[in-house]
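Q: Here's a chain of 196 amino acids. Please give me its 3D structure as tokens.
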Amino acid sequence: MREFTWWRRFHRANRRLPKQYMYQGASELLQRIEFGEFEYCHLSHEAKIEDKIYDRQIEEFKAGKPWLNDDNIQDQIKETRQLFNKRKNLVIKNHLEKENKLLAELRDLLAKEFNMPKDQVMDIMEEFDGTTRQLFFKIKWISEGREYSEEAVDKIPCLIREQPRHILKPKERKYTDLWVEVIKENNLQDRLNWDF
């Protein structure tokens, strides 16, 4: 187990697209966007599974020791609860940091790609309600003085296939049923890019 990633139950998402897989002559930023480098950070959804795992562990503990009363159970599970809280806090903290970093990097790269002021790009990002790929084309077309059309963007073929997200690590696959529960309870099916 790695010292700095012990708290992760899922494979890392938002990996960078290796340069050798990029098409020459096409926008590097667009290819990175299509690959999913700048998509919503998955960690906030993955934090929701922690509550379910903790509840399951407590139920298993109670089932294994039915003679204990609530006070004794609380004493026995103190360490489990502390580890659970630490893991969940790390997941949420890393989510917030990563999300801010992703948005700032995307803003900077869009501003550089289309020679626009960062403030103008940020204003567009705040008002825009669409995919990251659609945002790329909206800013591109604004910089070219063209009218934006979501239908026109959807007709443009993608160059790169999106990377998979929300994949449990092998030792954590025992929690697949809990992950599916979290997905259904929070209506996250549209955030997944694998068949559900």
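Q: Can you summarize the key feature?
A: The chain has a mean pLDDT of 83.
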